[in-house]
């Protein structure tokens, strides 16, 4: 897809050194680079979730995972800027059923944010949004939402003695870079319909994957097991 004035692209460095383009304005119709791209993202999300549950500084995250309504996992979230900055990455969303039981199969999304300021350098992080309320979970079912406007988001507690904010969504990150943290307030989350279709073999909406659960793919079983703390 060619770049346009209304769709500014930032280069995002993939987890295996592959470069992928992220449309900061958001676009759900971008085709996967290959048929394996969605499966690779699911595998990377599984690794990221494993990293979080094993990190001693993420004890609160692990202890409260059984009560979560959903998880949006972004294995590679890049924040970079030289005067004009941008941040974003591709991720997968899994949710619990209405009874708080089993985890769904993943739906594919893009998280993107733009900013203007005197910035320099870059930071790559693993990011997980823990959805804490039914309101937050349901907000994810549309084609697009804005964090902080359509649903509340706050930084998740990290380390011993950290205070817990009351919010629909808590944002956790693990990173080593030049920035002290990643602010997701104002970020836009959009569906990746082409990736959903590629992974499940037919056109599906997020509600079909996350609520009706009319599709499945065994490649996502390790991710579902990890979320259930069975791995």
TrEMBL record:
It comes from Skermanella cutis. It comes from the Bacteria. Residues 113-226 form the Ysc84 actin-binding domain. This is Lipid-binding SYLF domain-containing protein.
């Amino acid at each position: 897809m060619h770049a346009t004035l209304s769709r500014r692209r930032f280069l995002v460095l993939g987890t295996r050194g592959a470069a992928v383009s992220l449309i900061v304005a958001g676009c759900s119709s971008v085709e996967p680079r290959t048929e394996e791209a969605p499966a690779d993202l699911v595998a990377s999300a599984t690794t990221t979730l494993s990293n979080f549950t094993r990190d001693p500084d993420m004890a609160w995250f692990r202890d409260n995972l059984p009560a979560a309504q959903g998880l949006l996992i972004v294995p590679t979230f890049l924040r970079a800027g030289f005067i004009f900055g941008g941040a974003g990455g591709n991720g997968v969303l899994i949710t619990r059923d209405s009874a708080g039981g089993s985890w769904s199969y993943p739906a594919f999304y893009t998280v993107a944010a733009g900013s203007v300021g005197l910035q320099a350098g870059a930071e790559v992080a693993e990011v997980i949004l823990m959805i804490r309320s039914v309101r937050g979970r349901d907000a994810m079912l549309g084609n697009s939402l804005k964090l902080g406007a359509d649903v509340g988001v706050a930084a998740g507690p990290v380390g011993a003695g950290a205070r817990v904010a009351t919010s629909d969504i808590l944002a956790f990150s693990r990173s080593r870079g030049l920035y002290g943290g990643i602010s997701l307030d104002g970020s836009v989350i959009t569906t990746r319909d082409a990736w959903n279709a590629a992974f499940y073999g037919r056109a599906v909406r997020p509600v079909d994957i996350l609520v009706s659960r009319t599709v499945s793919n065994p490649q996502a079983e390790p991710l579902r097991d990890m979320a259930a703390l069975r791995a």
